[in-house]
Amino acid sequence: MGAGDEFELIEAMRRTYEAAGGPPPGEVWIGDDAAVVTGSAGPLLLATDLVVAGVHADPAVSTAADLGYKALAVTVSDLAAMGARPRWALVSLAGPPGSDVLAVAAGVAEAAAEVGCAVVGGDLSAAPVVTVSVAVVGSLVPPGEPGPLRRSGARPGDSLWLTGPLGASAAGLRLARSGATSGAAAPLVAAHRRPRARLAEGEAARLAGASAAVDISDGLVADARHLAEASGVGLALVGIPVADGATPAEALAGGEDYELLLATPDGSRLVAAFAAAGLRPPLPVGTCTPSPGHHRLDDGPLPAGGWRHRFGAPEGG
Amino acid sequence: MGAGDEFELIEAMRRTYEAAGGPPPGEVWIGDDAAVVTGSAGPLLLATDLVVAGVHADPAVSTAADLGYKALAVTVSDLAAMGARPRWALVSLAGPPGSDVLAVAAGVAEAAAEVGCAVVGGDLSAAPVVTVSVAVVGSLVPPGEPGPLRRSGARPGDSLWLTGPLGASAAGLRLARSGATSGAAAPLVAAHRRPRARLAEGEAARLAGASAAVDISDGLVADARHLAEASGVGLALVGIPVADGATPAEALAGGEDYELLLATPDGSRLVAAFAAAGLRPPLPVGTCTPSPGHHRLDDGPLPAGGWRHRFGAPEGG
Fold first, then answer.
1. Which domain holds residue A210?
2. What percentage of residues in chain A have a pLDDT greater than 90?
3. Predicted confidence (pLDDT) per residue in B255-289, tens digit
4. Touching check for B120 and chain A: CB below 8 Å?
5. Which of residues 228-247 of A touch B (CB under 8 A)?
6. How far is CA A152 from CA A45, A86, A139, A155, in A?
7. Do residues A133 and A163 share a domain?
8. Does residue A315 lie within any of the structural domains?
9. What span, in angstroms and rounded, lies between the C-alpha atoms of B303 and B305?
């Protein structure tokens, strides 16, 4: 059997994923039909994302390791937006013959180690393009109240906050495609290639009484709408912070920043909690209004936009 | 926005998945950043599989719904092989424009309903080919001892059993490709298109003191080796049962039957437990021997074979 044999690769991946430590006594990770982990009190949080080379990452910009890093990070970001911590991940990798799936796994492992999440199982398959599917299981710390941060908990009068300025990912993609990857472009390109899940921020917000949260994956204009529609409130957004080097359009609709949009009835408590946790101060971006469907940005309507995959017949079909 | 809009599709999928019932109070399923489910005592079992049209299913033989059904069923089969029950599934669907992802979701939902597993979240994406990734979280019932059925628990002298005859899936694929899908071919084609996870059998075996189990996904010759190698035993297989209409080669190496191979120190207890549960009698197929690496079939060596995905350089490269 050659170097690309499935079972040799799985063993190499197991070593990669367990570099930060293998299963504790009583647990089973990679190598059996299913993983066995130790349950605990309180709710479980479950999230998954599928990342496809050429769709979610431009192979001319992002390496195989970047793709793996991103797949893990964006899935964990869904837990950050609930104020939860990731505990275990399952990672399926697929690609055509010659794919460097071990490089993808190395990127997954790096992202997982950074957030303290164990990769405990997965699948390996052939596919026409490199594809990474990650599922994460998380929990709340402590396990009781306050509960997970829903999208639907915002109320009229709640203030809205971002965990950081927006547009860095879209600007980084633009710059990398133009060949600019060093100097001032470097942090923007890094933000695109290796997004960070705002886990500490989500947890601090939940413990500080935030009412709702969503992560900015599809772009602020789309994700803010998701939060407003789920909560039955309107939006009055003002002064959206733009990352250095990004355009206002990239900040509003570029997507993939993975900052969190937070709503809270007590903004000063949120600010104090972030300060106490040593986090960057949250940035105020407006308020929730009592008018569902009314979405304002500064002095005008909130523009349309944001990323949507399309599947069915073409527009008009 | 057209009929293929991502968010309309997600809502249609939510209705499909929740046809058998939505989230109980306190739980959050589809529609937020992550699902929230109610944890419980005892270990959690985690498994995932990625299924790609054209790789794991021939589009000329299997419909989109069959592909979805299969993706859920084969993932759940990993829990069956541990003696566990599936509780929650995350399902990611991807495909090119025009893909009937709702038909895939309908097949997923049908398989999930049959095994009592709730689809609580997922992802929807563009991809060059239809791809389904399923992750399942399961538990043991009751949650305490005996623990999950490992591959590694077989001991010399344990008897080996199959939950059913083998080769039906491979025979069904052969027949469907030749245009024979009715009459005697129908149950074989159905076995290929819509495999069943042997959940009741796995659980009965665990509760009856079985020592090890593996599901037959890659073919008996491959999966029996997995069990033997993990357990550090040899194999003496005799009288492998061949499904009606299948060839002996299909039974040995065809794969995708998803029957369970069980080892136990007490075969009569296993037989009695299956009878008490109203299950088909398990079929004896040999014993575990004290000689690791020695794998016998009837009067000769166990042949090589079984399905392996390949990734790296071509053979010899």
1. 159-301
2. 86
3. 999 999 999 999 999 999 999 999 999 999 999 99
4. yes
5. 230
6. 16, 22, 19, 9
7. no
8. no
9. 7
